[in-house]
UniProtKB/TrEMBL annotation:
It comes from Actinoplanes sandaracinus. Keywords: Hydrolase, Monooxygenase, Oxidoreductase, Signal. This is Lytic polysaccharide monooxygenase. It holds the Pfam family LPMO_10. One of its GO terms (molecular function) is monooxygenase activity. It comes from the Bacteria. Residues 202-248 form the Chitin-binding type-3 domain. Residues 1-28 form the signal peptide. InterPro entries: CBM5/12, CBM_sf_5/12, Cellulose/chitin-bd_N, GlcNAc_Chitin_IntDeg, Ig_E-set. Residues 174-202 are annotated as: Disordered. Residues 187-197 have a biased composition (Pro residues).
Length: 248
């Protein structure tokens, strides 16, 4: 009689576990959202021809220690392609890098490199970060266009998450020359009517709200559609979380 009760209980537990896995957001981890990392530029459409990284900018996960933008794995090799026209954000000598974390892994360190040199490291001693993480890094020893490699080293696995950010420090000579301007009165550009006004099914995005896949929201006059089921947190606003929201 005891086995008749134990086996159903185990079955229920197994089914419950499988359901939990099924509803958990897939491939959810983290990436640098600003200045825009290479995967952020792919997800936003600023760079085309990126492949699957468009849908998974948060999933560049590989073993620790790589010096490649994709972590040295077989996926997302487009991130290593320096021949692509990666936009470079113009920054000063001190730069704040902002991460969006869609899964908050306990962390050992955060590292930042230019070339083979580590320019900054932040030790979290195994603490669990929040939904966002920011680090201010001193890049005063560099000028012009540089690629910063960031590594988020997870404390309880062998893996790290990778983001490469292209920057132009101090607006050096590598900045493309501006197009000459002509002294004429510009024709005012009409302001387009925001999509949300024609989208009665959309609701205003709000932190603390649980959003299933396909939900349409508005934020700052633009419309977005949910890519991954999640509960919204401050710092995960649609323009800053391309892994969670797609502009429509």
């Amino acid at each position: 009689m005891r086995r008749r009760f134990v086996l159903p209980a185990l079955t229920v537990a197994a089914v419950g576990g499988s359901l939990f896995v099924a509803v958990s957001p897939a491939s959810a981890h983290g990436y640098i959202s600003s200045p825009p990392s290479r995967q952020a530029n792919c997800a936003s459409g600023a760079v085309s021809g990126c492949g699957d990284i468009v849908y998974e900018p948060q999933s560049v996960e590989q073993p620790k220690g790589s010096m490649q933008c994709n972590g040295g794995g077989s996926r997302f090799t487009v991130l290593n392609d320096d021949s692509k026209n990666w936009p470079a954000a113009t920054v000063g000598a001190s730069v704040t890098f902002n991460w969006v974390l869609t899964a908050r892994h306990r962390t050992s360190t955060w590292e930042y490199f230019i070339g083979a040199k580590r320019v900054a490291s932040f030790d979290d001693n195994g603490a669990q970060p929040g939904a966002t993480k920011s680090h201010t890094v001193d890049l005063s020893g560099y000028r012009g266009r540089q690629t910063v490699l960031a590594r988020w080293n997870v404390a309880d696995t062998i893996n790290a998450f990778y983001s490469c950010v292209d920057v132009n420090i101090g607006g050096g000579p590598t900045t493309p020359a501006p197009t000459p301007t002509v002294t004429v009165s510009p024709t005012p550009t009409p302001t387009p009517t925001p999509t949300p006004t024609n989208d009665p099914g959309a609701t205003t995005w709000a932190a603390g709200t649980a959003y299933p896949v396909g939900t349409r929201v508005t934020f700052d006059g633009a419309a977005y559609q949910c890519r991954q089921a999640h509960t919204a947190l401050t710092g995960w606003e649609p323009p800053h979380a391309a892994a969670l929201w797609a502009a429509v």
